[in-house]
């Protein structure tokens, strides 16, 4: 049985740049070792604090995590 887990991850972009990778590519690469444990990164999207639409999405995600709606 698979379960969906929602999490908010923060990525240090300087590490992605040092690795000559994009942010999502760096995240996927960093988490790839978890695949053998049955943990799979299914969907990914970057949400920027300075974009109003993304800010709303961040607030909604935090609301889901805090309130359990």
Q: How would you describe this protein?
A:
With 69 residues, the protein is an all-alpha fold. The protein is built from three helices and no strands. The protein has helices spanning 13-18, 23-31, 52-67. The longest helix has 16 residues, at 52-67. It is flat. The model has no long low-confidence stretch (mean pLDDT 91).
User: What does the main sheet amount to?
Assistant: none
Distance between the termini: 22 Å
Percent of sequence in beta strands: under 5%
Overall SS class: mainly alpha
Helix content: 40-55%
Output the number of helix runs: 3
The radius of gyration computed from the alpha-carbon positions, rounded to a whole number of angstroms, is: 14 Å
Which parts are unreliable, with pLDDT below 50 for 5 consecutive residues or more? none
Shape type: flat
Name the average pLDDT.
Answer: 91
Number of strands: 0
Query: What pattern of helices and strands is seen along the backbone?
Result: HHH
Question: Keywords, please?
Answer:
mainly alpha, 45% helix
Detail the topology: elements first, then pairings:
Layout: H1 13-18, H2 23-31, H3 52-67
């Amino acid at each position: 049985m698979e379960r969906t887990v929602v999490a908010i991850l923060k990525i240090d972009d300087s590490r992605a740049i040092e690795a000559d990778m994009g942010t999502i590519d760096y995240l996927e690469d960093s988490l790839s070792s978890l695949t053998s444990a049955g943990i799979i990164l299914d969907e990914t999207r970057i949400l920027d604090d300075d974009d109003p639409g993304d800010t709303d999405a961040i607030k909604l995600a935090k609301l889901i995590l805090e309130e359990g709606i």
